[in-house]
Amino acid sequence: MKKILVIGPNPAWQKVLLFENFRPGKINRARERIYFASGKAINFCRALHCHRPEQECRLFQFAGGESGDKVTAELDREKIPHTTVAIAGSTRICTTCCCGASGAITELIEPAAAVGKENVAELLADFARHLPEAGLVAFCGTLPPGAENFLYVEAARLTAKYRIPLLIDSYMELETLLSLHPAPMLKINADELRLFTGETETVPALRKLFARFPLRFAAITDGAGDALLCDDRHLHRYHLPKLERIVNSIGCGDTANAVLSAELLAGAAP
Q1: DSSP state letters, 156-175
Q2: Which segments of the chain are extended strands (E)?
Q3: CA angle, 206 as apex, 201 and 212 as ends, to 5°?
Q4: Sequential pLDDT tens for the chain (270 residues)
Q5: What is the pTM of this model?
Q6: Contact 10, 37 (CB under 8 A)
Q7: What's the rounded Cα separation, in Å, for the pair 224 and 43?
Q8: Is 199 helix (H, G, I), strand (E, B) or coil?
Q9: What distance in Å separates the CA atoms of residue 133 and residue 215, rounded to the nearest whole number?
Q10: If we measure between CA atoms, which residue out of 208, 210, 201 comes closest to residue 232?
Q11: DSSP state letter for 204
């Protein structure tokens, strides 16, 4: 079975605080606290293991400091294979505040630690070494300082060279990435799509996207609103069921990406 290679350069040590009633601008006391490794790529790999435990994957990331040690220890505990390049700075800590009364979620994201050119080169070298085993590559999340304009671009060139399907879940360097691969697959949210294309409505934004780039398909999520799947001929609209109680919606898009990737590799139509 071919592997899914997941580049997620910006992991986080996640802290989730659960409140009965969260009030912005006030003193808030949490009733419960949970810690775990997170970030878009880690969420992807975790969901993939839940959905298809037999599907192999490998995560590529940077990590440093005490928080980075916690991230890698958690990945080892969950048996998620990973290439982790050590960096001088500390892995960011992100905090999710969940309000039980309203269901509202507030996410607090620390700045990412910078990476050096040698860190990027080390990660790319190991990524290239594993590419012959890959059936699909996924780019997940933002790039830390020092990796912009380089990491995803070089990885996309390598992925195109080996003619491996590429799923992009990142807004950074998007125009370059969509031009480098012969048939990229895009999964972003509706706000990112509208911002990227300059259109105020989602469907005209998709038309502009397909007029400019050789996409295999674009999958667009919009929170609890309708999701869209589009290729150069068809547009599918998905009406999502209303859930009675949501504790924490962070990572829903990552879960969708993981299930989509596994099913594509298993031969399903998008």
Answers
A1: HHHHHHTT--EEEE--TTHH
A2: 3-7, 12-19, 32-38, 57-63, 82-86, 93-99, 105-109, 134-140, 166-169, 185-189, 217-221, 227-230, 235-238
A3: 130
A4: 899 999 999 999 999 999 999 999 999 999 999 999 999 999 999 999 999 999 999 999 999 999 999 999 999 999 999 999 999 999 999 999 999 888 889 999 999 999 999 999 999 999 999 999 999 999 999 999 999 989 999 999 999 999 999 999 998 899 999 999 999 999 999 999 999 999 999 999 999 999 999 999 999 999 889 999 999 899 999 999 988 888 888 899 999 999 999 999 999 999
A5: 0.95
A6: no
A7: 19
A8: coil
A9: 24
A10: 210
A11: H
Are the C-beta atoms of 135 and 58 separated by less than 8 Å? Answer: no
33/174 Cα distance (integer angstroms): 36
Q: What are phi and psi of 102, to 5 degrees?
A: -105, -20
Q: Is 165 left (phi over 0), alpha (psi -120 to 50) or beta?
A: beta
Q: Is 110 in contact with 94 (CB distance < 8 Å)? A: yes
Token pair 């192999």 in the structure block, residue: 56
Contacts of 121 (CB under 8 A, 6+ apart): none
Which tokens go with 172?
Answer: 């950074």
215/204 Cα distance (integer angstroms): 16
Tokens of 138: 């996924």
DSSP H or E stretch at residue 124: helix 117-130
Amino acid at 256: A
